[in-house]
């Protein structure tokens, strides 16, 4: 009589063990799916922050932060996407929220300062950077410090910060161009020309530096194009800039010659140069 009971217990035990194994297996599967979800979400976030349309990225991170408001990485993603979308006022608010998070870092303070500058709030940017310890030295921090010093016309500080920033990056073309433009606005044309040249040595495709270089040369009455990489369209645009610089210096005849050359050089109709030339000839 005991055998049927023992068999029943064994059967019940085997069913319990099977159920337990199934539960353990299910937990493993759930954990595995959660890990995959985290990896996929991380990859998607990276895509949204780099190659996705900025406004699509804003929509993605706005939804994500509503679902998981405690996640600072998603808050940063939203703030960065608003900067990329040039929605500067909203970006400031988003970075302010990030900075208030318990897990915020000095990087977040620097990014908030950057957002303030983009929104034209220079005083707030300066006050934000003042909160960052002086021992925290990064390229972005010093680039922003230089820009703020420029806005305050604190030239020695600006030069010092630009110099430090150049030494903290392997891609200094942009900051060299900014430094050159700072020198240009001060009337230090030869030094500006040198810095624009260095920027182009680092990145020969940077058209802003090419145009600024021509402005610096024009301000010194150097009315020949520098020996730099340029295609036909760029050559025409630079001749146009140089022609206007000559007119500004009072060298009107030279300016007309350069503008005519710009019109002839451009592979298509160059409306801006044509208008400038007509205005001079009619005047």
Automatic annotation (TrEMBL):
InterPro entries with a match to the protein in the record: TPR-4, TPR-like_helical_dom_sf, TPR_rpt
This chain belongs to the protein called Flp pilus assembly protein TadD, contains TPR repeats
